[in-house]
Amino acid sequence: MLRIGTCSWKYDSWKGLIYNNHKNINYLKEYSQHYNTVEIDQWFWSPFEGSLLKMPEPHVIENYDESVSDDFKFTVKLPNSLTLTHYYRSKKPNPYFLNPICLTNS
Question: 3-state SS string over the chain?
């Protein structure tokens, strides 16, 4: 099955195209009427408070689940602190990112 989606779903510029023009809309619910998958990218951009990983609040995940049909699929973009550590710290790629030994030992 081919799934078509985008890298996020909340764009005010899509009002009138994908979303209705109402003031208080559920962007994800309306998005899911047109597409069957989406990438959650917000944790890629802002996963940290200080030096600790900030996981999504349970009510946020519940809201996502309630906004889409059972066959809707989410993909999650890994936090940039995992994939872009060369940018943040040592300017070298993260040697542990997707390392099979690290993944099986965790």
Answer: CCCCEECCCCCHHHECCCECCCCCCCHHHHHCCCCCEEEECHHHHCCEECCEECCCCHHHHHHHHHHCCCCCEEEECCCHHHHCHHHHHHCCCCCCCCCHHHHHCC
Q: What is the pTM of this model?
A: 0.66
Going from N- to C-terminal start, the domains of the chain cover 5-80
For 31, the token pair is 């998005």
C-alpha–C-alpha distance, residues 40 and 21, integer Å: 23
Average pLDDT over residues 54-69: 87
